[in-house]
Amino acid sequence: MSDKPTEQESRLTSAALHSLFKNMGLGVSFGDVSVALERADVLALPLLEQIKAILHGLNIKGVKGGMIAWRRFDRRQLPALVQYDGQWWLAKNGEQADSVLLEQGEGLPAQAVSSEELVESLVLWLQRAKPNHLEDNKDQDFPTARKLILSALFQDKLWLGNVLAATVVINLLAIATSLFALQVYDRVVPTLAYSTLATLVVGMLGIVLLDWMLKGIRAKVLDSLAADVDMRLSKQVFHHLLHLRLDKQPNSFGTLNAQVNGLESVRQFFTSGIVFGLIDLPFALMFIAFIAVIGGVVSWVYALLFPLAILLGVVTQIRLRTLIKKQILRSNERQGLLIDVIRGAETIRANNAGWRFSNEWEQITRSLAGYQVHQKAISQISTATTGSLSTIAYVSAVVVGVFQIEAGNLTMGGMIACSILGGRVINPVAQGVQYLVQWQSVSQSLTMVDQLLALDLERKPSQHLLVGEQTIGSVSAEQVRFVYGDSPVKHLDIEQLTFNAGDRVLLVGPIGCGKSTLLKVLAGLYRPSEGRIKLGALDLWEIDPQFVTSHVSYLPQNVHLFKGTLKSNLTLSGTVSDTEMMQVASELGVDVIAQSNPKGMELDIAEGGEGLSGGQRQLVALSRTITTKPTVWLLDEPTASLDADTEKRVWEVLEKHIKPDDILVVSTHRPMLAAHIANRVLVMQQGKVTRDGAPAAVFPAMMNNTKPTAPTATQTRIKRGFNAI
Ligand SMILES: Nc1ncnc2c1ncn2[C@@H]1O[C@H](COP(=O)(O)OP(=O)(O)OP(=O)(O)O)[C@@H](O)[C@H]1O
């Protein structure tokens, strides 16, 4: 390979850039790319700024550029531009696993090089904005909230028959009121036939009673159904939440929170009167038919109102859709901010950073208020328009009725009956428009719930799970690559790594080098993007997760305690006997916490572990790990919050409980304090294992290598590039 070129020496070429756009499915012409590149060139900006300007010039939205060294680049993100031999090439995956095809552009010279040759090269890649998660999973068969609701609704169809029968009768009874008016005006008033009036009144009382009973029964059936739907949906969503693939979990608490809260508005929808309104809506057509029987052409007035009102509802829905979406996104941001502020209250106070969060809060609240005002205005217009339409319909019906009376086609009683029936058309139609509007926000909530349900689970429900051997002889990582989210950086890049029975491994390396990530991948918490983690001879991701957790125990760097008591936190899994729990607690000194407060082991722990110090929390977590008696111990900085004496005691307790054939992998920034128990040391750098050997061999080498070194040319360029983003 020739000398590494600098960013300035090698200019982007229109051919390479155009080919990249084409390969990404971005339809821009070669001429447009050339013009945009020339314009960006004139500005003499840093490369990433140039890309920004070019994308802007070409009106390409939702795409952004990034720059990184090839050795850290995740090759699944190809095609990208790669700087090699003094120029930028379009790089695609070659036919062989480690070959890369470099092209100068469409129809221009190309060559295949090995990935090794590009190690020091720079990569310029374009990233699309994250696709909609549902779109992403549209081929996958996940249970959508709508499907779950429908299956819950139609599991027992008897209710449907009952509700339908009750609804038909309730609406038929409504006709009786108009018939009553018809009889009174046409028969009773002209002759003052009081006995007929009395009979009619008695009949009406019976009808009112029946109507009241049927409405009560119908509400009860629907309420219990709503409770059932809510139960099933909540259960499914919570189950999904508990079994989500941790590496796929959304980073935003606000979003996750809103997704789960979406259930609330679905429940409200089912338990409110909206459902009655919706099932009554089709009966408006029946009333129009009755008006036609009694008043002839008067019915046309209402027949015209019906589609107009529905059209109004649909238009309102369309106008509200984007608004409600934006509102939900903003409100998620607000939730996320709130959670962040509550969690970080001490840091905010200590850094006097409250103003920054207040500003953000104010901004979000202002835009939320703006959306709400806009939404209200749209709903208001729709309500007012439906109201006006209804009044116009009523007046028109009366006017048409007058002409019908004059023509001898309608009696006075008939006109009154038509007005009453008209009310039965107008009311559900006017409400129907409001229901359509409300449905819009329920539908958005259902989409939020669906987005949660579409997230990958740690194991597919249909997967046939294996059960491993009772003794785990080894844990290995084979060609494992791991990437957080859609980042182009490989956060873990391991060719082959095996831990055998009896291994006591210290995992060391600078901050952010991937120690925790490796432990999480080995524990089966994160699934590798490529390659396999094996427990013995079996792929960890093929094994029943219960089997995995019974053999592999992971102690996280950030210990989390749950709301409850000290005891409930020590025996989180519920499978540890009190004697065992107390014994380990006293070995570690956790019992001292219990003894120093009047509630003992029943000491209250608040949400997030408030009530214990950082070191005490770490001891509780260690106690949990020890009592699970794992075969594979994966400990992430287990003594980081402890004082020297306690740390010494912890190592003694661990040595006592770790069986000779167990595997121990401990990440630590203080390797010397744990060196006495280790028989192997792994050094990590930028996601790779750079050294692996006995402590006696690795530690002296590490000592000799601690002199600070000047950054390489590529590192400097990357830093410049990222600063420019
Ligand atoms: N949830 C995450 N999302 C995106 N990137 C992450 C996430 N967690 C870690 N990373 C990135 O992965 C890299 C490795 O992180 P990791 O936590 O494994 O490092 P580490 O060696 O354990 O560091 P430390 O010694 O500080 O604990 C870091 O560059 C970090 O920025």
From TrEMBL:
Give all residue intervals belonging to the ABC transporter domain: 475-711
Keyword Calcium among UniProt keywords: no
Which GO MF term does the entry hold, naming one? ATPase-coupled lipid transmembrane transporter activity
Does the record carry Transmembrane helix as a key word? yes
User: Which InterPro entries does the record match to this protein?
Assistant: AAA+_ATPase, ABC1_TM_dom, ABC1_TM_sf, ABC_transporter-like_ATP-bd, ABC_transporter-like_CS, P-loop_NTPase, Type_1_exporter
Q: Where in the cell is it found?
A: Cell membrane
Q: What is this protein called?
A: ATP-binding cassette, subfamily C, LapB
Its source organism is Marinomonas polaris DSM 16579
Which lineage? Bacteria, Pseudomonadati, Pseudomonadota, Gammaproteobacteria, Oceanospirillales
